[in-house]
Amino acid sequence: MSSLNKADKHDEALRLYKQIERNEMLEFNKQLYNTVLMSCSKLRLWGKAVEILWQMEASGMSDLTVSYNLVIRTCELARKPKIAWQVYEHMVHQKCIPNIFTYLSIIRCCTKGYLYEELEEILNVSKKYFSNFLAIFVCV
User: Which sections of the protein are PPR repeats (predicted)?
Assistant: First the structure.
C-alpha cells in the first residue's frame, strides 16, 4: 500500500485495503491504517477516514495522534471544517494529546470554515506551542 501511495495510486491502495480487510488476509497495525488514511487524505475521502479512525479505536489501538492528524487534514482538504472540529474534540475527549500539526491543521480549518469561536478556543489552548501572531500568520 505504501508503494501505491508513493506512486500516486491512491485508489488502488484503497482497493487493496478493502480486499485485505474483506478476506481477513492479515491483521492491520497502526502503520498500515495510517497508510490507508494517507490515501483517504489524497482522495479527500473524509467519511472513509473517520470510519477507519473509529475502527482503530475500536480495536484498542492507542497513541493515535498521527492518525487523528491525518483525519483532520483530510477533513481540511475536503472542506469539512465542522467535521474536523468534531474529530479534534473527540481526540481530546479520548485523551489523545494534540501536537503542533494538530493545532496548525485545526486552526486552518477554523479560519477557512468561519468557526471563529472554535478558533478562539484553539488559540487559547495552543499558546504553549506558538504565539497567536504566528498562528494567524500561518493561516493567512
Answer: 29-63, 64-98
